[in-house]
Write a structure and sequence with these properties.
single chain, six-stranded antiparallel sheet, alpha+beta, 102 residues
Length: 102
């Protein structure tokens, strides 16, 4: 893997754009130590940062909304747990507000 390979941009099926890169400071032993991400959402004719953060070599990641909330996840297991917990929130909300569960 070369340093030039750790940079890119892709469009998610939702329309969100995901950008990633690894800067010089995150390299060790010819491997990426962390890859930085931005998730951008369309707003009219421009893209706005919805969420940004990084995934580190040990699987931990830090994410935040611009100038707002921050959260830390320790590997895919925590990502899956968070996704599952959010799903439960929507299921419970849907019992009281059916339109919220669509």
């Amino acid at each position: 893997m070369t340093r030039e390979e750790i940079k890119g941009r892709a469009t998610h099926s939702s329309g969100w754009v995901i950008e990633w890169e690894c800067k010089e400071s995150c390299w060790w032993d010819d491997h990426a130590g962390a890859i930085n991400f931005k998730i951008l959402t369309p707003n009219g004719d421009r893209l706005e940062v919805m969420l940004e953060g990084s995934v580190k070599w040990d699987g931990c990641s830090d994410w935040h909304e611009p100038d707002r909330n921050y959260f830390h996840l320790c590997g895919m297991r925590h990502v899956e747990n968070l996704y599952s917990a959010l799903g439960m929130c929507y299921e419970i909300a849907g019992k009281y507000m059916p339109e919220a569960n669509e």
